[in-house]
Write a structure and sequence with these properties.
Strand 1 and strand 2 form a beta hairpin. The protein has a single domain (9-103), classed as 434 Repressor (Amino-terminal Domain), CATH 1.10.260. Mean pLDDT is 85; it is low at 104-109. Helix content is 51%, strand content 9%. By secondary structure, it is mainly alpha-helical. It is flat and about 50 Å long. Strands 1-2 form a two-stranded antiparallel sheet.
């Protein structure tokens, strides 16, 4: 196994600053994901999610690739993965949760 190192040995050789940078990157990656990455992180398949949403697998694939969709559809997608969607507006002086989207019914799109 020439030229190969165990991951633990590589991590042990990191400086404290490098370890901090790695930890921050892990946090960043966990807080920002595409829908497909989120589904995979939740260990769900498109097929499983399609059954929960009562749509075809191709529709799930299409939703994951969209850059624009109805808030109601995004909420259904997130809820099908066991989550809850919150819409938050961030301003320099603070963040505000937009509450009127919580009452949106299912909208096709």
């Amino acid at each position: 196994m020439s030229g190969r190192n165990k991951f633990a040995a590589l991590r042990a050789g990191l400086s404290p600053a490098q370890s901090d940078a790695v930890a921050q990157k892990v946090l960043d990656l966990r807080t920002e994901m595409t829908l497909a990455e989120l589904r995979q992180a939740r260990q769900l398949t498109q097929q499983t999610l399609s059954g929960t949403l009562q749509v075809g697998q191709a529709a799930v694939a299409k939703m994951e690739k969209r850059t624009d969709m109805y808030v109601g559809n995004l909420r259904r997608f997130v809820e099908a993965m066991g989550g809850e969607l919150e819409v938050v507006a961030r301003f320099p002086e603070g963040s505000v949760k937009i509450s009127n989207f919580s009452e949106i019914g299912d909208v096709a799109g």
